[in-house]
């Protein structure tokens, strides 16, 4: 038995060593799915900065407008492309052939990316781009090395660079700094912008989550009341026994 435990611990060492860097980069974040103002800002950022290449083809403009409290006229004017119908899916106009020519592969749809990757990973990824002249788009990412896309949020964040003079192949750099004056937002504003974008992606992946959480609270309150009533009923039944 001791030998088996020793073997299992030995096998776990490489896994732990591999997982530690990612764990130090990807940290938990709080997402408020009930904050419609944040979700509307995230939707605007998605359309303005992501939808040129990525779509959300399982989502409709009408559903987003209804859920986030956006008038249809405003939705079509500010968030939908010219000529779109309110019932259209949120699809990118980038053609697969063009995507393959520019990026070497088809660009993934982002409707369910928050389910696949998780909100913590997305937040760290969107904040993890840095300058790398060796890469085709001039950037790399500490969360997803050798990333194949440009940093579409660089105009907001600014030009971010690695800040580890002592880094090596054995111990990659995970500390970043933004060159002052290169972005339109300060650090807190950019973090809030990314958080709102991630919140919208989380909503897109599960549009009824906020409602489900609300219903879940009512169910828990109902069960608590039911337990109290069941206890009182039990006590009434057994008060004359014994």
Automatic annotation (TrEMBL):
Gene3D superfamilies tied to this protein: Cytochrome c-like domain (1.10.760.10)
**Cofactor(s) in the UniProt record:** heme c
Its domain of life?
Bacteria
PANTHER family from the UniProt entry: CYTOCHROME C1 (PTHR10266), CYTOCHROME C1, HEME PROTEIN, MITOCHONDRIAL (PTHR10266:SF3)
Q: Which organism is it from?
A: Pseudomonas rhizosphaerae
Q: Residue limits of the Cytochrome c domain?
A: 37-205
Q: What is this protein called?
A: Cytochrome C
The cellular location(s) given in this protein's UniProt record come to:
Membrane
Please verify whether the record's keywords include Iron: yes
Q: Where does heme c bind?
A: 50, 53-54
Q: Which InterPro entries match?
A: Cyt_c-like_dom, Cyt_c-like_dom_sf, Cyt_c1
Traced from the root, the source organism's taxonomic lineage reads: Bacteria, Pseudomonadati, Pseudomonadota, Gammaproteobacteria, Pseudomonadales
Q: Supply the alphabetized keyword list.
A: Heme, Iron, Membrane, Metal-binding, Signal, Transmembrane, Transmembrane helix
Entry note: cofactor: Binds 1 heme c group covalently per subunit.
The UniProt transmembrane annotation reads: 215-233
């Amino acid at each position: 038995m001791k030998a088996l435990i020793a073997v299992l611990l030995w096998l776990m060492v490489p896994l732990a060593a591999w997982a530690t860097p990612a764990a130090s980069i990807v940290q938990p974040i709080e997402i408020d799915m009930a904050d419609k103002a944040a979700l509307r800002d995230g939707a605007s950022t998605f359309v303005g900065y992501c939808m040129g290449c990525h779509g959300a083809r399982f989502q409709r403009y009408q559903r987003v407008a209804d859920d986030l409290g956006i008038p249809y006229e405003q939705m079509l004017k500010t968030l939908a492309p010219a000529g779109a119908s309110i019932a259209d899916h949120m699809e990118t106009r980038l053609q697969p052939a063009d995507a393959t020519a520019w990026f070497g592969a088809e660009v993934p749809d982002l409707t369910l990316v928050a389910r696949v990757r998780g909100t913590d990973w997305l937040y760290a990824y969107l904040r993890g781009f840095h300058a790398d002249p060796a890469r085709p788009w001039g950037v790399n990412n500490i969360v997803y090395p050798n990333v194949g896309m440009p940093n579409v949020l660089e105009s907001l964040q600014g030009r971010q660079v690695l800040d580890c003079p002592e880094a090596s192949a054995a111990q990659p750099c995970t500390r970043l700094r933004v060159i002052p004056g290169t972005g339109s937002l300060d650090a807190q504003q950019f973090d809030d912008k990314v958080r709102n974008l991630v919140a919208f992606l989380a909503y897109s992946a599960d549009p009824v989550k906020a409602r489900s959480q609300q219903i879940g609270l009512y169910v828990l309150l109902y069960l608590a009341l039911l337990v109290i009533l069941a206890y009182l009923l039990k006590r009434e039944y057994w008060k004359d026994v014994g």
